[in-house]
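Issue 218. Parser rejects a valid record. Input:
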Amino acid sequence: MQIGLVIAAALLADALLGEMRRGHPLVGFGVLAARLERVLNRRDFPAWLRRILGVIGLALVVVPFVVAAIVLAAAEYGWAFEILALYLALGLRSLGEHARRVQRALAADNVESARAAVGMMVSRDVRALDRRGVAAATVESVLENGNDAVFGTLFWFAVAGAPGAVAYRLVNTLDAMWGYRTERLAAFGWAAARLDDVLNWPAARLAALTYGLVGLAPLRALRCAWVQGGRTDSPNAGVVMAAGAGALGVRIGGPGVYHGRRVWRPRFGVGRRPDGAAIGAAVGLVINGALLWTAIACIAGWWFA
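Output the parser choked on:
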């Protein structure tokens, strides 16, 4: 089945059905990964051994699922599995639902509800955020997670089919769970964090270009990505957020509290601080970007058929 049609079918399923409320494979995978981390990541082990165990843990929880995806994708009805796997790996509708919940709360002037809603999207302490801070945190999350939950998944599906999308999303999930630079996870999560950086590198640059194109501000977005993208420790997050903020014409970043520690986040973009309308515009960037990628995949599949 043509890759563009598989992508279109998976995106349609995501739009119609949304994220599974119960029994989502990624939730089960997260439970498995958490249990394995508790077993392997012993505090009394030296850092070098915890790094090795992190590599082993990553292989134990990722490789079997990727092998299973290879087998199922090669089966008689492999196209159906590919649609299902891509649908489960995508998070476009869910991302939009979370963001719009914040937007509606801000529109109703209910800052407490808006804080609670954005707290479901970010790992920072949201209790001290004002209206603009809530909007900025939401925009940042939409732009960054747009790459993780949509563009990175679509890129690796285009490269390696369902096994590529499965591998990417599982590694991305491990990075979200194990990749923190805390005393407990810094060594053990090193492999997951670095592999996620590698897998995200090409997708993040394409996502940055996409934000500029669909935001009708490609030069401004790419200029922000080029000048500001290297301000983060991550080789990818800064590029995506800078390009997205540039495309929207807003400025994000600044101080935040993470795990009880005050952290200064680099500034990205240009112009005003985001408001509720910017949240909807950020969601629009991701949706329109996904549609653009689908169109390109369909055209490419038809052209090279």
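Fixed in the parser; the record now loads. The first strand starts at residue 251 and ends at 258.
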